[in-house]
Amino acid sequence: MKSSLAPGIRLITAFSRDAWYRSFILFLTFLFYTAYHLSRKPISIVKSQLHRNCSNVIRPPNLNITNNETWCDWAPFDQENYQTLFGYLDNSFLVAYAIGMFISGIFGERLPLRYYLSFGMIMSGLFTCLFGLGFYLEIHSLGYYAFIQVMNGLMQTTGWPSVVACVGNWFGKGKRGFIMGVWNSHTSVGNILGSLIAGVFVSSAWGMSFIVPGIIISCTGVLCFFFLVEKPEDVNCSPPQHHTEEESGETEPLLQNSASHSGTLNGAIVSIETPEIVVQERAQAISFTAALSIPGVLEFSLCLLFAKLVSYTFLFWLPLYISNVAHFDARQAGDMSTLFDAGGIVGGITAGLVSDYTGGRATTCCVMLILAAPALFLYNYIGQRSLATTVGMLLLCGSLVNGPYALITTAVSADLGTHESLRGNSRALSTVTAIIDGTGSVGAALGPLLAGVISPTGWNNVFYMLICSDLLACLFLSRLVYKEAQGWCGRTPRVRGFKEI
Q1: DSSP assignments along 369-417, one per residue
Q2: End-to-end CA distance of the chain
């Protein structure tokens, strides 16, 4: 009797070759950007170790103490203005990241993504390790740590435009919001893993909190060099369709007009050769100003500036806030802060699903940002009353704050980078992504810096700043939300995918 096909083999053969490649690329890019965020997180965990309440620390015997209040701190963060110094340190990374991001997209379009990503991850790993080596070499210079942060910030800009461009090359519109919502959980997964890894070493030897993540991202850089496939065409897979027939309806007349200029060619030859000529022309890398003029890019960029301000303030300051307000030690505060990132996973997936179903990317972001404002207010006032309240509020705030941020940096960037006005030029993906995320990174630089300046006046003022930023982010989306509402009411053509915005 002939045996039936093994269940595992049936599962493997149920998917096409294209589907396997797409799944593989999605997994690889997920892994790469998880490593990027994993290596960014340690600084927020280590802050509460660099400056502590020394009266609660057991003093080693035979230790020559010159200052009873700061003997356990790590210079130069043993000063009274340590929060401002932490803000400068964060800002060194984030300003370099914001400036480098605008340049990175240009390089990402003109260099092979595999080489560019591999170089970026290996160099980022090197500088992350160098920060940790400051512990073992007993380096107490603020300039040293600031320089490392600047260089790491520049290296980290290689990641986001490249991975979004790669995923955009492999996946068409379809259910892009949901796919990228799930895929974008790498941000939160990286933050969670970075917190847990840094937490293991922070109380004993905080240098390893940087060295281990640095080694991990360097190893993923090597993995990228050996396995990343930039475009489906490179392995004879079929390219995705970025636009519906309705959106691409003007393409056919364009090709016909191109053919009419060659009187010696007959119709059969034109139908085959002319598209090749047009595609070749459209493969030119897009300029910065041309990418900025794509409808919707400016509004979403400014919205992300304030949305990312809020998200990165939590990324860099939440463990210290929990430590100061709830009086947890460095490791406990770091572990508790992972709940905010866990909520971000749920928020990103939810935002993607809702925006796919409704076709309203801007409206989805706006609603979540509006809801985030009262959630932040409640977390500051009642979030530390009990463990259950803390857990619930961190999950809720993480979902509402990171949901719009995740949607804009993934599905929205990919939609705009393959906008129908580009006539199929997918090489705009990297530049559009860099513009949006680069503008957002300006907010990411401002948020932690403002938190460092404002926090000495009280944490309430920090949260008021975050709430105002959320509301400003909504304001910049108001025109797009109005257009989407008009489309739903049937007054204008459908605006899904930002058509006619």
Answers
A1: HHHHHHHHHHHHHHTTSSHHHHHHHHHHHHHHHHHHHHHIIIIIHHHHH
A2: 63
- Give how many domains the chain has, as a whole number: 1
Residue 376 maps to a domain: yes
The pLDDT score that the predictor gives to residue 81 is: 83
The answer to the question of residue 248 being in a domain is no
Q: How far is CA 246 from CA 243, 249, 251, 400, in A?
A: 8, 5, 10, 33
Residue 442 lies in a domain: yes
358 C-beta neighbours (distance < 10 Å), count: 14
Calpha distance 46→197 (Å, rounded)? 11
Q: Pick the closest to residue 365 from 395, 422, 418, 410 (CA basis).
A: 410
Supply the range of the domain harboring residue 457: 16-52+78-232+274-488
Plot region of 286 (φ>0 → left; ψ -120 to 50 → alpha; else → beta): beta
The predicted pLDDT at position 266 comes to 39
DSSP states along 226-252:
HH----GGGGTPPPPP-S-TTTTTTHH
In a domain, 150, yes or no: yes
Predicted confidence (pLDDT) per residue in 82-109, tens digit: 888 888 888 899 889 888 887 877 777 7
Of the pLDDT bands very low, low, confident and very high (cuts 50, 70, 90), residue 173 is low
The CATH number given to whatever domain includes residue 393 is 1.20.1250.20
